[in-house]
UniProtKB/TrEMBL annotation:
It comes from the Bacteria. It is a multi-pass membrane protein. Residues 9-95 form the DUF3817 domain. This is DUF3817 domain-containing protein. The keyword Transmembrane applies.
Length: 114
């Protein structure tokens, strides 16, 4: 894996968890808006919107650089629209990055089958 591909995956990982947290907080704020006088929806909506846009941009970059299959790309996009999806995306991206590093080292050392 080259450095640009690793960086693309790292950026996607860095934004996936905050995007998921902001989505959950937005849901809580929506409930509070309807049950109390507290209204933080405009602020949380803006924060979540920014993080969602960043996630989609980083997702597109990662898809372009990693050459994911359509199914993998759809999975990672679907994780952006599910309230806790970012946590699952982060876990899977971490495993994918680690596997790529191991495969890259094996290729570099000339191990057969890598």
């Amino acid at each position: 894996m080259d450095i640009k591909t690793a960086s693309a995956l790292r950026r996607l990982r860095l934004v996936s968890v905050p995007e998921a947290v902001s989505f959950l907080l937005l849901l809580v704020c929506s409930v509070l808006k309807r049950t109390t006088e507290f209204n933080a929806v405009p602020v949380m909506g803006a924060i979540h919107g920014l993080l969602f846009v960043l996630y989609v941009l980083f997702w597109a970059d990662a898809w372009n650089r990693t050459k994911w299959s359509l199914g993998t790309a759809v999975f990672y996009f679907a994780m952006s629209v599910l309230p806790t999806g970012g946590f699952f995306a982060d876990k899977r991206l971490k495993r994918e990055a680690e596997d790529a590093v191991i495969a890259g080292r094996a290729r570099k050392e000339g191990v057969v089958g890598a």
